[in-house]
Structures are given as C-alpha cells and as structure tokens.
Design brief:
The chain contains 15 helices and 3 strands. The chain has 319 residues and is mostly helical. A 3-stranded antiparallel sheet has the order 1-2-3. Strand 1 and strand 2 form a beta hairpin.
Length: 319
C-alpha cells in the first residue's frame, strides 16, 4: 500500500485524458505545426522570415484560442479517481500553445488579442484543483508577460487601452489556498482506495492529508511573514506523520514563493503598460520598481521579491 501511495506523488507531473473546451485549440495546433517549428521559435536569434511564415501557418490556432479563451465559464476538472494512473495531457499541450502563439507574437495579425487569450488560458488552467495545474497556470501567466513585453512599445494607444481593459476582466479563479484544499481532498479520497474499506492505516493517511492540506491552505491566507513561519511549522510537524502523508507536504513553501513571484511579475507588467499609456514610464513607476532605460529605446523594470529572486520585465524598444 505504501509503495502505491508514494507513486501517487507523480500524479500531477502528468495530465487528464478527458476532453475540455480547449481541445479544438490543441487539434488546430497539431494540424498546423511540425517538430522543426519549435526550433524556429526557440532559436537564439529567431529568423524574422521563418517566424512570419510560421505565424501565418498557425493562424487557425489563434482563431481557436481566441474562441476558447473568451469563455468565462470554463473550469478544468478531470477524473482523478485513477490516482497515479491519471493522465493530464492538457498541461503539456497548453504549454505548446503558449510557446507557438507567444513565439510568433511579433509577427501576428492580432497581437493584443493573442496576449489576452494567453492570459485568459492561464486563468483557466488555475481553475483545475491540482497544484501542478496551478503552477502551469502561473508559469503561463509569467511567460505571457514576457512575450507581451516584446510588442508593448509598438502598440498604439488604443491597443494598449484595450489590453489594459481586458486584463481587468479575467475569469475568476480559486485562491492559491483553495487549490491546496481541493488537491488535499483528491489525495485524501485516493488514500482510501489503497486498502479494503475500513482499513485503519488508509483512514489515518486520508485524515492526515486532509488536515495537513487544510492547515497549509489556512497558512496561505496569512500575511507573508506569518504564512512562511506557519508553513515551516507544518512541514516540520509532518515528520511525525505517516511517510505516505509526508509526500504531499514539502512543496508548500516553494508554492508560496511562486505565488509571491507571479504577483510581482504581474505588478511590473501593469506598471510598464500603464506607464506607456501615461506617456512617461519612469515618472509613472516612481519608487514602485527600479527603472533602467535600454539602448534600443526600451526599458527594464525590476523588483526584488525574496532573497533568491528579482523579478524583471524587459520591454523592447521600437526598431
């Protein structure tokens, strides 16, 4: 039983086979690209001609993405009853969509709509009740800001205003604490399937998981200093729990730091966008972040998040 449950820690490294509203996007992407296209996007010095050709070829992907992302009602919930056998392929497919649409953004006919759609896809990913989906959603959001920074200075005032308005009207997502609690319920329920009904060890693991994830969720709602101290206490006290329960504990502190970082990434992007709208980025930013003009006419905004991470956004100049 313990070995089976330990393998459950790999559940959220892979993804659900159930169909969802983004399936048309994934199908369009599969039809539009070949393996060599990723090398075009990820080259150290992308070839503008090759990027333009690819951007035209993936236009059907953009159309499908815009349509799917416009839905405010999407909640990605799969069937997690299979435990470690559960697959979640939409996460890797979503990352491919991000790389292709983001990587061809500079040559897109609809760059603002693309940024909005990617940002909404990130929000939709965060609605799934698993920690890894939340993290992929956070990563998608962060990458969207980096891609958008390549075109931000080139947009018209009307386009920037449209982008600003759309980013203020995103799908509602669960809180980071709620995601932890939801995943805890999945882990807890799965633990009960690893032994015959009424098995005291399975019940113990199930109860411990429910309690520790509930405690971690509560900690996530505290002010940062109190939160970090409480999460340390939870991780330390978990050493006294069943070894199977311990498998779901150590990532909470890292999760909290990732949440902190995307908040600052978001803040920097909006500072850059609002500064461009105001017509004076440096004056608009003030003391909220460090401002550095760049030789190409662009600029860099940065801000320390914690001892290990300085967030930054680099807005390309108009060439």
């Amino acid at each position: 039983m313990r070995l089976l449950f330990v393998s459950f820690s790999f559940l959220f490294a892979v993804v659900s086979a159930s169909a969802h509203p983004y399936e048309p996007v994934f199908e369009a992407l599969e039809s539009a690209i070949v393996a060599e296209d990723m090398a075009v996007i990820e080259a150290d010095k992308p070839n503008p001609v090759a990027i333009a050709e690819l951007a035209e070829r993936v236009q059907p992907v953009r159309v499908a993405l815009h349509e799917a992302a416009a839905n405010d009602e999407i909640i990605w919930v799969g069937d997690y009853s299979a435990g470690p056998e559960t697959l979640l392929p939409h996460l890797s497919k979503s990352r491919s969509v991000l790389r292709v649409i983001g990587g061809t953004l500079t040559q897109s006919r609809t760059p603002v709509e693309d940024v909005i759609a990617l940002r909404r896809m990130a929000a939709h990913l965060k609605t799934e009740p698993t920690l890894v989906s939340r993290l992929v959603g956070i990563g998608t959001e962060a990458a969207t800001y980096r891609y958008a920074a390549s075109i931000l200075a080139k947009l018209s005032d009307d386009q920037r205003q449209a982008l600003r308005q759309a980013l203020g009207d995103l799908p509602v997502t669960p809180s980071p604490a709620d995601t932890l609690r939801a995943e805890g319920r999945i882990f807890s329920k799965y633990a009960l399937t690893l032994a015959p009904a009424g098995n005291p060890v399975a019940q113990q693991i199930s109860d411990e998981i429910l309690q520790v994830t509930s405690d971690a969720g509560g900690a996530m709602e505290l002010p940062k200093q109190e939160r970090d101290a409480r999460l340390e206490e939870i991780e330390a006290s978990a050493q006294e729990l069943n070894p199977a329960t311990q498998k779901v504990v150590p990532s909470y502190g890292r999760y909290a730091r990732t949440v902190d970082r995307i908040i600052i990434d978001r803040e920097l992007f909006h500072l850059a966008l609002d500064g461009l709208i105001a017509g004076d980025v440096e004056a608009h930013v003030g003391d909220a972040a460090s401002y550095e003009p760049l030789p190409d006419g662009g600029f860099r905004l940065s801000k320390r998040v914690d001892d290990e991470y300085i967030a930054e956004i680099v807005v390309d100049g108009v060439r």
